[in-house]
Amino acid sequence: MLLGCVAFQAALAEGAPAGDVPPGVDALCDEIGAKLGSVSKRDCHDQQLQHTGHRSVLQRVLAVKEYPPKPPKVPVGRILVIGGIHGDEYSSVSVVFKWMEILDVHHSGLFHWHFVPLSNPDGLLRDQSQRQNDRGVDLNRNFPTRDWDELALDYWATRTGSDPRRYPGPHAASEPEVAYLVDEIASFKPDIIISLHAPYGVIDHDGPPKAPEYLGDLTLRRLGVFPGSLGNYGGVDLNVPVVTVELAHAGIMPSDSQVSRMWTDLVRWLVRERRNAPSGAAD
Q1: 280 part of a folded domain
Q2: What stretches of 75-234 show up as alpha helix (H) in DSSP?
C-alpha cells in the first residue's frame, strides 16, 4: 500500500496521471514528423534520439543526440547545439535535424557534440504552434540570470508592455524545459553553445571569444541581452560563448546549399576558435 501511495505521489509530481506511462522518444518523433514538412517521421526516428530523463510541462520527452569523442583522438571542444526554444520558429528545429544528418556522415571526433533539436516541444506541437511553452512562458526569458530577480518581470512590464509572448515566468528557471537546459549546461560543460532561432536573419553573439562574422548568408549583428535570456545566462554569467543563429524565416527553410554553407562556416569558425583557446580549455 505504501509503495502504491509513493508511486501515485511521484506521478502527480511529474504531472502525469497515476498509472499512465508518459510517451517516449518514438512518440515524440511521430509528432515532429507530422508537424514539420522538412523533417519526416523516418528522419527523426533515424536519428535515434535519447531520452534525457527530463520532460516538458505536458510530459513530452526532452531528447538529445550525442556525437561522442573517438579515441584516441582528443576533441578540441564540447559543443552544445539547441533548436526550438521558441515553438513557432519551425526552421530552428528543422535546420538542427539537417545538421545532424551532415554530422552523421562526417563526424570525425574533432568535437564532442550534444544536439537538443527541440527544446520546447509543447510550443511546437500544438495545433497552433506558439513561441512560449504550455504554461505561456517565454523560455528565452526564463534562464536564471544574475539579474533575473531584479529585472525580468519589470523589464517585461515596462519594455514589452506585458506582452504575453515574452512573459518570463513566475521565477527564474520555473519551467522544466529551462531546468533541463541548465542541467545540460552544468553537466556537459560546453565550450560553446549554438542556439537557433528565427526570423531576424543575422548572427548574434554573447560572451567570448571573437564572434563569427558570417555563416552562409547570415552576418554578425549583435542584438543585446535580456534578463533571463540564454545569451545572458551562458555568455555573460557563465562566460560560455553563445552564438545565436537567427535564420531568415521561421516557416521557410533555407535552401540545402545554405544549410550546408552555414554548417561549413560554423565548423571552420569553431576549429579556429578552439585551436586558439588556452591549453586545457576543452578538458
Answers
A1: no
A2: 90-106, 121-124, 153-159, 176-188, 230
The single-letter DSSP state of residue 220 is B
Q: Is 69 exposed, middle or buried (0-12, 13-18, 19+ CB in 10 A)?
A: middle
68 domain residue, yes or no: yes
pLDDT tens digit sequence for 10-28: 333 344 444 466 789 999 9
**Segments forming the whole domain that contains residue 257:** 23-275
User: In Å, what is the CA distance from 152 to each residue of 138, 146, 277?
Assistant: 12, 10, 33
- The gap from C-alpha 133 to its chain's centroid, in whole angstroms, comes to 13
Neighbours of 98 (CB within 10 A): 20
- Residue identified by cell 536564471 is 144
Q: Is residue 1 part of a domain?
A: no
Whether residue 16 lies inside any domain: the answer is: no
Place of cell 513530452: 60
Q: All 3 cell numbers of residue 139?
A: 523560455
Query: Domain containing 249 — which CATH number?
Result: 3.40.630.10
Over residues 97-135, the pLDDT tens digits come to 999 999 999 999 999 999 999 999 999 999 999 999 999
- Which residue in 19, 253, 233 sits closest to 144, CA to CA? 233
| Total structural domains within the chain | 1
Q: What is the DSSP letter of 151?
A: I
Q: Give the cell for residue 210.
A: 571573437
Residue 7: left (phi > 0), alpha (psi -120 to 50), or beta? Answer: alpha
